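Structural biology now treats backbone shape like a language. To illustrate, our science desk offers a sequence and the tokens encoding its fold:
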Amino acid sequence: MPIEVDDVVQDANAFRTGPMEKYKAELAAKGYSEARVGKFDAALDDLLKKDAAQKAAQAALLQKTQDQEVAIDASIAMITKFQNAAKAAFGRDKVRLKEFKVGTDKPRNVGRLVTMLEYFTGLAGKYSVELLANGLTQDDLSELSTVYGALVAADASQENAKKLRNASTVTRDAALSVLKEEIFKARKLAQVVFAKNKAVLEEFKPIPKGRGKAAPKPPASDQQQQTTTQK
């Protein structure tokens, strides 16, 4: 959709400053009044503003997603730290190691990770004596709760940013539809006004999509081609 927005905005700008302005009197005489020109301009301006808001919301979501990934990494690191302390405390006691989920995959899914952190919070209280005697500190026990809270907060913030991005996308797309409709109606009116003038109608045609992108590289010179052939 962003590519379509770029194309429509480029087409609208070229249309508005080109044939619409050039043949303003002829169009006005056939019903394309100042009010309709103003409506076209308002639709273009509205799309530009809505598109900028959508891009800002997308950037905010990206940042929140990165923050969430940091919180996930910190959570997994904390769980690993507690598991290593459990190994130091209980050696190869399979029952205790299983209780600490040693050998199981650590989820990156936030929902599963949150429940796992809640579970480890319980283990931290249950085995605090053993864990504190095998590498962990009281700060580690406290940090487990901090990491847990940070993950919950980061996830909530990311989900909210996702909703805001989605809402701004819907709004942007609605504005895009309005401008496309204004362009369509203006061009159809021009086809009526200049039905017998094909040269003028050519000026009202839309510009090719993607126009303005990087131009293809120029062909190699004869000398370059000869050098390539000799290699």
